[in-house]
Amino acid sequence: MAQIQLTPAQRKDHRADAHHLNAVVMIGSDGLTPAVKKETDAALNAHGLIKVRVLSDDRAGREEIFQTLANELNAAPIQHIGKLLVLWRPMPPKEKKVNEDRMPGPRDVKVLKNSSRHGQRPEVKTLRVLGNQRLTPGGTVKRAKKPQLKSAKKSAQG
Prior knowledge:
By secondary structure, the protein is of the alpha+beta class. The chain contains four helices and eight strands, in the order αβαβαββββββα. The protein has helices at about 10-20, 35-45, 60-70, 150-155, and strands at about 25, 50-55, 75-80, 85-90, 105-115, 125-130, 135, 140-145. The strands form three sheets. Strands 1-2-4-3 form a four-stranded mixed β-sheet, sandwiched between helices. The longest helix is centred in the N-terminal third of the chain and has 14 residues, at about 35-45. The chain is elongated. The model has no long low-confidence stretch (mean pLDDT about 85).
C-alpha cells in the first residue's frame, strides 16, 4: 500500500497535535517484527495519531523503519526526530450496534425508610424500579410522565 501524502500545513497541524502524546509503540533490539507491525496498526486504528519510539542508535535504520511502517500500514509519516517517529492515519468510522428491541430494564434500588417508632433503626427496603418509573425523594415509586406534545398555553389559544 502507498503512504498518505499530506500538505506541509496538514503535517504541521499533526505535529502540533502529537507534541503532548507519549510513545504508544516501542521497537526494541529485534527491529521491525510482524508483532510490532500488528501493534502499530492496532494503535493507528485506535488513536489515529501515534508516536513510536525506536531504541536503536542507528539513524539510517530508524529512517528505514519509519518509511517501512508508513508504506506497509498506509500511514502518513509526520515527523522523525531523534528516536521518536510520528505516524498518522485517518481513523476508520466506528460501527455502532443498534438493537431496536432493547428497552431499559428493571433495576433494584435500596431505600432507607425511617421507622414509625422514633429511635429505632431505619428499615432498608429493596424496591424494583422499571424503565418507565422513577424514585421520588420520599422513597416512593412513580411512573414517568408522558412528554407533552404541545404546551398548555398553546393548546388553550389555538
